[in-house]
Specification:
By secondary structure, this protein is mainly α. The chain has 2 domains: 3-302 and 388-470, Hydantoin permease (Orthogonal Bundle), CATH 1.10.4160.10; 312-380, no CATH class. The chain is 69% helix and 1% strand. The chain has helices at 3-24, 30-35, 42-53, 56-69, 74-90, 92-98, 103-110, 114-146, 151-201, 206-209, 222-232, 244-258, 262-265, 274-292, 295-310, 329-335, 359-369, 383-390, 395-433, 439-462, 468-492, 498-520, 548-565, 571-581, and strands spanning 340-342, 376-378. It has a two-stranded antiparallel ribbon. Mean pLDDT is 82; it is low at 523-533.
Length: 586
Amino acid sequence: MDLQTLIYLVVGATFVLYFILAIVARAGTTSEFYVAGKGINPVLNGMATAADWMSAASFISMAGLIAFNGYSASAYLMGWTGGYVLLAMLLAPYLRKFGKFTVPEFIGDRFYSKTARVIAVIALLVISLTYVIGQMKGVGVAFSRFLETSVEVGLFAGMGIVFVYAVLGGMKGITYTQIAQYVIMIFAYTVPAIFISLQLTGHFLPQIGTGAELTDGSNQYLLQKLDMILVDLGFAEYTGTPDLMNTFLLTLALMIGTAGLPHVLVRFFTVPRVRDARKSAGWTLLFIAILYTTAPAVGAMAIWNTLKTVQPGAIGAEEGNLLYEERPQWFKNWETTGLLKFEDKNDDGRIQYYNDNNEEFAAMAEAEYGWEGNELYVDRDIMVLANPEIAKLPNWVIALIAAGGIAAALSTAAGLLLAISSAISHDLLKGVIKPDISEKGELMAGRISMTVAIIIAGYLGLNPPGFAAQVVALAFGLAASSLFPALMMGIFSKRMNKQGAIAGMLAGLTITLLYIFWYKGWFFIPGTNMLPDNADNWLFGINPTSFGAIGAAVNFIVAILVAKMTTPPPAEIQELVEDVRVPRAS
């Protein structure tokens, strides 16, 4: 069976499965729509949470980041996994004990303020919309290659799939769909990694293969030889030391941002009891670890295979670079998507791939080799999906990775869209604007708001401000600077009042948005000159993707100062905080 037919069959079968699960588990009440009726088994919820959390950024983009940035991308691994530990220990059990549907509902009740609830809704919408852009980019990338269409058409197809099972199924349908997506996703990620590890190093486990010797007879380790090739092409060493300040700040921003993500937090409301929330968190961490310990191997092996394809010979030798006319089929397949491009700048018919931003190396390459600039553009988001094709793995493995990449993007997109829907219909409409709305009316409002969110997310996904993991990192920074401090202080500080929480959320979210928008060039103030997005212009050298940690610090400081200058919370609120923290048996 040819590859394209097999891909259609495998991907089509997963779509049928999603539709069946969504229809069978269709939400009929607001409780089922928002929190799946609070009846999900902890192990199953752990799988669903893992799928919800391991987005297109984790499945598609993270290994691409590692492939091109090397060890400096370790912040994404440490931040996202460390953040989940933080969430499991400090937030999940207490929020589940509080027993509400959504994060804004907790903030509104804890800080006895509709204003606080509205600000939490605004923060949630900003976070979720920013996050879902990355998912839609991932949907477009996966669909465009494997359904042999443009990124735009692929994105619209993904929007249609999400609409059917998310709008109809609600949290109940999404939960069972995400369980299936996790199984598909983890097999799709690990099976190709095992094949490629065996192919390159002879080791079954990719985690071991990354640090092992190559089987090409060179008697060199994979990472050792990878360092040599990258340096020869003007790039930094793959295992080189990263920018420590930004690595620390990015890790911290991702950690506390993870613990403030509304679509992940709401999953702990779907289990029957508080202790089930703790169990669910443990299972989720185990399920996540399978993918996250494999990602460094996938990144290293993906960039190795890519470099060996376009640079098969010695650097600078006439036959060292791949002839464009002799490019392999995988190269042609990805060219049709527009995510892989070649421009023959020196008209020699060969592909020169090197770091032309390294001025010293670029000058040498022009003088000695006649190279006139880097000629190959590779979108980082294609690395995981293209890797099995580059490695010439069997067609069924390539079809499996196609299904996994699509499942990763769709699973998180559904969770985010539900968070957006519940924020509008439950927190804004029922909680503030129209408290007497009927359950049927609220359910309809939820489905309408999710539909609108899908359309907006699709539009933004067509014009993303970066590759998937970078956009997601910005969303984590926004969550870190707005919701996480309010949740932490709401649970662990009886003295924190509504004035402090409101001031802190506004200060943290505003300063982070301004910094990101300014240095990403997303707005223009007349009479000013926009600064390019590079380290020379960042304030104190702080990367916009790392600024969430600074925003969180501002949130905490402003909230604490304002709370000290204003009246304490009412006695019943202080008792509520005490009750949330104390185990029921006590």
